[in-house]
Amino acid sequence: MKNFKSILVALVAAASVSAVGTATADSVKIPTHNWSSQLVGAKIVGALFEMVGEEVEYIPMDSQTVYQSMCENDIDIVHEVWQGAFGAAFEKVVNEGCVMDLATHDAKTREEWWYPMFVKEMCPGLPDWKALDACADKFTRADSGGKGVFIGGPVDWLKNDAERVEALGMNFVVKNAGSAAAIWAELESGIKQNKPVVIFNWTPNFIEALYEGEFVEFPEYQAACKDDPAWGMNQEMAYDCGNPKDGYLKIGVSHEFKEDNPKAFAVASKINFSNLDIAKQSNYVDTDGMEVDAAAQRWLDEHKDKWEAWIQ
Ligand code: TMO
Hints:
It contains 15 helices and ten strands. It is an alpha/beta fold. It folds into two domains: 4-108 and 246-311, 3-Layer(aba) Sandwich (D-Maltodextrin-Binding Protein, domain 2); 111-227, D-Maltodextrin-Binding Protein, domain 2 (3-Layer(aba) Sandwich), CATH 3.40.190.100. The strands form four sheets. It has a three-stranded antiparallel sheet, with helices on both faces. Helix 7 (161-167) links the parallel strand 6 and strand 7. Helix 2 packs across helix 12 (262-270), helix 2 crosses helix 13 (275-286) and helix 2 crosses helix 14 (292-302). The longest helix has 17 residues, at 4-20. The relative contact order is 0.19. Bound molecules: trimethylamine oxide (TMO). Residues 35, 82, 85, 111, 153, 157, 202 line the site of trimethylamine oxide.
């Protein structure tokens, strides 16, 4: 498994490329975030743009504030808009008219609380969230005040987990991991010690190729759940539901992108990743231990028949 240090190295490398690169006002600005499929996909998308003669600049960036940056034309494209994590931030700027909802990938996504399969034997009734809650004492830690610990993602993946815990009256606290690698370390340590863990996970991801496990089933997602406190089992609070199960994965672009970079825009309109594409982009790095650039090149080498049509 890829460790956090090598991801950091990749991020620093991406930063120095943009610092010394041949960036001009017209170069396509692509953000790089803190999970593997996005880092690899960003390089694939960038390579496709370069094939049609555009210049590309990679900018390490917070995955929530990037939507405002796209509004301000400081970023041109977010090629992995996950509905669960970023739907609210994305739809806000689309509604404001400063970001374009350009395309929807074939990939269907889910981002949710998840446990490795051995936990199921220790907490009868899973995957129902009430069974998890009844089992909270098995997830406590020295510093959790007697409550179960849920290992959430880095805070920029904004999931409203703490709000959900409160709205559903769960006997849990949310501990945000500092990086994706820190979540996987918590998972591995739980598995090694046979100690129950519940972590933030998503699909498509490399985890499903390595470990058996399940998502926790919360009350079914509906848009009203996050906007309307009266909706759902808690009449006074929003977020009393899970994340979408069949979430979208979209491509969003700045409104100036089409005019500033018409060739890249034409390519971006055709890019379409499947679940397997996203899983592979993650697996090459997190399972096979490849560097981000090599992983991007591998995907390009192995999927020529797919992307050739995108650059016509
Ligand atoms: C945005 N993510 C895939 C990490 O949930």
